[in-house]
Amino acid sequence: MKIVMVGSGYVGLVSGACFADFGHEVVCVDKQDSKIAALKRGEIPIFEPGLSELVRSNAAAGRLTFTTDLAGPVSKADAVFIAVGTPSRRGDGFADLSYVYAASREIAQALDGYTVIVTKSTVPVGTGDEVERIVRELRPDAEFAVVSNPEFLREGAAIEDFKRPDRIVIGAEDERARALMAEVYRPLYLNSAPILNTSRRTAELTKYAANAFLATKITFINEMADLCEQVGANVQDVARGMGLDNRIGAKFLHAGPGYGGSCFPKDTLALIKTAQDYGTPARIVETVAAVNDQRKRAMGRKVVAACGGSVRGKTIAVLGLTFKPNTDDMRDAPSIAIVTALQDGGATVRAFDPEGMEQARATLPAGVVYCSDAYECVAGADAAVIVTEWNIFRALDLDRVRQAMAAPVLIDLRNVYRPEQVRAKGFTYLDVGRGSQP
Ligand code: NAD
User: Fold this and answer.
1) Overall pTM > 0.80
2) Ligand 1 site, CB within 6 A
3) List of residues 6+ apart from 175 with CB closer than 8 A
4) The UDP-glucose/GDP-mannose dehydrogenase C-terminal domain covers which part of the protein (predicted)?
5) In this structure, which residue's CA is closest to atom 12 in ligand 1?
6) Are strands 428-430 and 369-370 parallel, antiparallel or unpaired?
7) For residue range 306-323, what is the model confidence (pLDDT) as tens digits?
């Protein structure tokens, strides 16, 4: 099948490369000349494990190409996926659909023969109807259908998630489009991935409901962690005790500094807005978003408390900046609020991340001292904070860390160490919800 991906970011590039790997003929389109030029040279503009090899092999096989010209490939396509960003709109937090609608208009102009337009971007319920209206208005003659196929991949494990998904959700309003989508995903039937055929609106809402539920799970265990700290209980054991119940499940029950990333913060806000607009407020999700927001700065205060109540004039080392390991994505990372809170308190922040330094420089406030590894980062620091649980921070040489620091204070916001292990090395150690007071 001939497939076009409009938008070659985390989702578009991974989906495009995986579809090519299934044997489809895929063209990845992007507006950013530099991104397409890099891809043509064989350079991958984002960090995602395994993506470089997958892109290279499929490009070499001639199944995966890159261009800034949308019209040519769209005119020949069976399916055109929209995988552009849907960030939070300034002011009200609703999804900014301007990129989706702009892409829809460009696609409309280029349609030639029956084409299925698929929204893979996360879009509020009803967006598919609007895309259909836009295309129909511009091209009353065109033969097309608009389908919703939300993407559930996780950055850091994106290829595995795309190729072995828990489910594929396809929201279509007509049988011809559904049959074409079945053909697009046919290679995955062999892996017996459940395909959920729904209405378009149902598919759109399913994505938001799933993300909001996961955000709720994280926020729930974070609140339990706070309670654990007060009552002297251990949140990891509480989570294990809860998670072994099949009705609950063990995943997304890791206490930490609050959720971040390119999806949960914006998708919870967009769902809240949609629910308000339809007169059925999503009170639980509203609370989750508010609690999570407060938590990120509270983590900054936790560091301040560990430093004796003030960080003025002190140096704090921040280990890990991306919103989770194995990605370079800094969008809405908890590190942003934590670094800001520390700087507001008068601290000098030194920082290191294995893959996120470039994006961090563009995202974090000015004044951060960027370091080339963990040991350089902690040099002379009055406290070190693990914000993102990259593997290399799980196995630090603690003797070397202590010797490099001005004061041996470690705040472990991801609970990667055992308290007794760190304390035995002479550290003052603080974690999240395990009753480890400094
Ligand atoms: P991204 O910002 O990494 O990529 C979007 C790309 O689209 C950019 O490269 C941009 O230049 C390009 N673009 C914008 N308008 C365009 C146009 N008219 N023509 C061609 N290219 C255009 O975003 P992303 O993280 O890939 O997310 C895309 C969508 O997928 C969002 O709706 C997001 O919520 C959703 N999603 C993301 C993830 C994730 O983990 N990142 C997971 C599931 C769903």
Assistant:
1) yes
2) 6-12, 29-32, 35, 83-86, 99, 102-103, 106, 121-122, 151, 153, 155, 262-263
3) none
4) 317-419
5) 7
6) unpaired
7) 999 999 999 999 999 999
